[in-house]
Amino acid sequence: GKNFRYKTLSVTRERFVFTTVAIGGISYSFSGAFLKGGVFAEANLDDETPVLEGVLVKHQQGKKVAEAKLKFIYFGGT
């Protein structure tokens, strides 16, 4: 696998947005929103309720070639 480094990154209580540096003409961008306003310590989290949702876009030579709407859950580890 390849490790894509961030080109831009912005994280606030409400939003998570990034773009990556291109490798071989391929790059990615993501724009999402935290569903609980970033207040995870006060939330009743489980492994089925999404805490972040957004759109991941794959770019090739600067043009969008794929897009996926994603939802992420909280996983505290074991």
Structure description:
It is built from no helices and 5 strands. The protein is mostly beta strands and 78 residues long. A 5-stranded antiparallel β-sheet has the order 1-2-3-4-5, with no helix packed on it. A hairpin with a 2-residue loop joins strand 4 (50-60) and strand 5. The protein is elongated. The mean pLDDT is 88.
Percentage of residues assigned to helices: under 10%
Poorly predicted sequence stretches spanning 5 or more consecutive residues: none
What global shape is seen?
A: elongated
Based on secondary structure, the structural category is mainly beta
Amount of beta strand = over 45%
Mean pLDDT: 88
Discrete helix count: 0
Number of strands: 5
Q: Could you give a short account of the major beta sheet?
A: 5 strands, antiparallel
Termini distance? 25 Å
Strand order of the largest sheet: 1-2-3-4-5
Radius of gyration, in Å, reads: 14 Å
Return the string of H and E elements.
EEEEE
